[in-house]
Amino acid sequence: MLSDTMQQALNQQINEEFCSAFIYLGMSAEADRIGLPGFSNWFKMQYQEELGHAERFFNYILERNGSVDLLPIGKPELTEETPLSLFEKSLKHERHITVCVSRLKDLARGESDHATDVFLEWFVREQVEEESNAQNVIDQLRLVGDNANGLFLIDRELATRTATPAE
Ligand SMILES: [Fe+2]
Ligand SMILES: [Fe+2]
Fold first, then answer.
1. Is there a contact between 92 and 66 (Cβ–Cβ < 8 Å)?
2. Residue 12 Cα, ligand 2 centroid: separation in angstroms?
3. What was the pLDDT predicted at 167?
């Protein structure tokens, strides 16, 4: 059985993942506004991935016979973004999520809740990927600077991202 503290923390994480989804959906709109359909696609795929993350926590709470509590989702703060600022925000956000996952893991370990500890392993690995994905695009954007051809090529590459099927 989940402790009250653990249940509350996992519900908080459902909210974090939905907030992530909302941020990426907003970023998809921003990228489209800038005229970068490939970036827009990449953020849309990330939005879908975040919905999957929220669902993993949702399913896990129910599996442990806990109660799900869906909390309000705030408005994403996005104004006058550039391709670089969007990915810098992504990286900053993913670092925040990594901290959230680490805190959850500390909590699970502190309570000797081995089931939750093991469940969170997937997210620990996923966060390594999330930070690295954002960092890779930032590196490419810094490399091309204001070169429009370079930006066009990155956009073409980001256009190829498809939804990752749930494992
Ligand atoms: Fe996530
Ligand atoms: Fe991912």
1. no
2. 20
3. 56
- CA 44 distance to own-chain centroid: 11
Residues (pLDDT < 50) of the chain are: none
The CATH number linked to 124 is: 1.20.1260.10
Residues within 5 A (CB) of ion ligand 1: 17, 20, 50, 53
Domain coverage including residue 46 = 4-71+81-158
Give the pair of three-digit tokens for residue 114. Answer: 């081995």
20 C-alpha to center of ligand 1: Å? 6
CA of 128 to the centre of ligand 2 (A): 9
- CA of 144 relative to ligand 2 center, distance in Å: 24
Domain count for the chain, please give it: 1
Assess if residue 93 is contained within a domain.
yes
Quick check: helix, strand or coil at residue 79? coil
